[in-house]
């Protein structure tokens, strides 16, 4: 499972869902949909930073940027490209 | 006068957005003392109505108890009205020290420090005792005041799934190398009425050398055989490192709170907790009332026993009638309706029937978990509960939800 979207989706399911069978897609609204509360977002941020060896500043790691797997991946890809 | 039309417009627009989102809060004015029956004006300008109160935190029915009122009167006579000082300048009286001692004895801890409220206790404690070298690991459903307190602390933070011990253990392993680890939970969770499994949490904390913090605001005075709190219920008295609690609910219902626990931690709060350092403490009149409450509760379990009987009676009545409830064994008994609009309509109809119970919905509770939260009191008599039950059944029949499962209710009304 090398696809970044799948890796992030799996982390979100494992970390935040009580019922692993609950359906979640790349576009499911995580924060505005009440799946991830903004206070608990911190572990997701740490996971992304550790996995992709990037540093996400607080003003970019916003509830809006973290609202879907797709938007998270866009953000992470931006910071990966800045590294190279 | 910097309050220009432009600035006024900013606030008006923001308030409008809150209103449009259905999140605008209004107060309901009560024209009586807090009790099982209260006189309410709602909405503003409507005729006053006498209703049965099913949503107060007046668990032990002591908010207007004659003995507490008398003790408060006496305290007012002997110790005055206010202190006009923070504790460490000239705002500490003998009764403040006495209350700290009595709370320590009641909760079975090492020491206690009073705060103006439990909100202040939770806001102040983490910043006072933790640094960047430490970590706070909190249950995802802890009270908002704890979240605020965590945000004020420089320590690293993380959360674990509600009541999920495997997930907590995973987090404890992840942060094994931190200087101090604090596991943070409510004793009784105020929206669901479930109790934290403190025996399992103590075992995990001992295994990983972590401190355990419990906010027992919805427990102190009535949970456990003699009402000492969730730690008594789970047989771990003396093993909770930090307990915060309030005097604004079961313990008289006025105001005030405390941090109670390990001696050094309490002393750190006395040295560093900002809400303690920069605010007057609890007024003498309230201290006198709480002292009376503790004396009463230490002598007899009559009130908490009655609360337990009432709660069991109410829960059974609702279940027999066919409502879907959150499982639990506390006086917080949420009637699950799942749909936000249904919860609002249900609450309005109950009020028409003379029953005061509030609907809760997203974002206060998770999306699709709207409910009427009922809270039972030792001040309720069986006739109050019977009347309330009859009203719930009448309204339940109107919406055709009695005997229906969650799935069926959601099919009818949506999430």
Task: Write a brief structural summary.
The complex is a heterodimer of chains A (about 80) and B (about 425). Chain A has helices at about 5-15, 40-50, 70-84.
Structural commentary:
The complex is a heterodimer of chains A (84) and B (415). Chain A has 84 residues and is an all-alpha fold. Chain A has helices at 4-16, 41-52, 69-83. Chain A is globular. By secondary structure, chain B is an alpha/beta fold. Chain B has 16 helices and 14 strands. Chain B has helices at residues 5-20, 66-79, 87-90, 94-107, 118-129, 144-152, 165-174, 198-207, 230-233, 263-272, 274-277, 284-299, 302-321, 340-352, 382-398, 406-413, and strands spanning 29-30, 37-41, 49-53, 111-115, 135-139, 156-160, 181-186, 211-215, 242-246, 257-261, 332-338, 355-356, 358-360, 370-375. In chain B, helix 6 links the parallel strand 5 and strand 6 (156-160). In chain B, helix 2 crosses helix 12 (284-299) and helix 13 runs parallel beside helix 15. The A-B interface holds A 16, 18, 33-34, 37, 39-40, 42-43, 46 and B 140, 147, 150, 157-159, 161-162, 164, 362-363, 366-367.
């Amino acid at each position: 499972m090398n696809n970044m979207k799948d890796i992030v989706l799996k982390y979100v399911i494992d970390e935040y869902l009580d019922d692993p069978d609950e359906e979640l897609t790349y576009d499911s609204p995580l924060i505005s949909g009440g799946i991830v509360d903004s206070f608990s977002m911190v572990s997701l941020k740490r996971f992304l930073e550790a996995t992709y060896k990037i540093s996400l500043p607080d003003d970019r790691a916003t509830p809006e940027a973290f609202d879907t797997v797709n938007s998270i991946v866009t953000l992470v890809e931006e910071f990966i490209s800045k590294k190279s | 006068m910097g309050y220009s039309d432009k600035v006024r417009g900013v606030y008006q627009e923001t308030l409008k957005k809150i209103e449009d989102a259905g999140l605008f809060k209004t107060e309901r004015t009560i024209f009586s003392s807090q009790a099982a029956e209260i006189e309410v004006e709602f909405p503003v300008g409507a005729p006053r109505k006498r209703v049965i109160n099913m949503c107060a935190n007046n668990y032990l029915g002591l908010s207007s108890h004659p003995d507490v009122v008398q003790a408060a009167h006496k305290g007012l006579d002997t110790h005055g009205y206010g202190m006009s000082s923070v504790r460490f300048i000239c705002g500490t009286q003998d009764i403040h020290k006495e209350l700290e001692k009595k709370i320590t004895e009641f909760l079975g801890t090492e020491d206690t420090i009073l705060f103006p409220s439990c909100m202040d206790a939770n806001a102040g404690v983490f910043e006072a005792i933790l640094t960047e070298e430490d970590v706070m690991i909190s249950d995802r459903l802890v009270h908002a005041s704890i979240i605020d307190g965590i945000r004020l602390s420089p320590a690293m933070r993380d959360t674990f799934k509600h009541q999920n011990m495997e997930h907590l253990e995973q987090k404890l392993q992840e942060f094994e190398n931190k200087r101090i680890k604090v596991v943070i939970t409510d004793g009784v969770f105020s929206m669901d009425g479930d109790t934290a499994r403190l025996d399992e949490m103590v075992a995990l904390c001992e295994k990983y050398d972590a401190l355990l913090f419990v906010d027992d605001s919805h427990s102190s005075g009535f949970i456990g055989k003699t009402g000492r709190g969730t730690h008594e219920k789970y047989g771990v008295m003396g093993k909770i490192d930090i307990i915060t609690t309030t005097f604004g609910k079961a313990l008289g219902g006025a105001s005030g709170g405390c941090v109670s626990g390990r001696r050094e931690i309490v002393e750190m709060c006395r040295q560093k907790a900002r809400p303690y350092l920069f605010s007057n403490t609890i007024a003498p009149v309230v201290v006198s009332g709480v002292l009376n409450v503790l004396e009463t509760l230490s002598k007899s379990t009559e009130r908490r026993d009655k609360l337990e009987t009432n709660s069991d009676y109410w829960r059974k009545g609702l279940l027999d009638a066919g409502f879907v409830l959150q499982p639990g064994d506390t006086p917080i008994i949420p009637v699950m309706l799942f749909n936000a609009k249904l919860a609002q309509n249900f609450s309005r109809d109950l009020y028409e029937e003379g029953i005061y119970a509030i609907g809760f919905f997203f974002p206060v509770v998770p999306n699709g978990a709207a409910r009427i939260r009922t809270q039972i009191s030792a001040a309720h008599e069986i006739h109050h509960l019977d009347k309330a039950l009859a009203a719930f059944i009448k309204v339940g029949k109107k919406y055709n939800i009695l005997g229906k499962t969650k799935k069926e209710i959601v099919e009818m009304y949506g999430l």
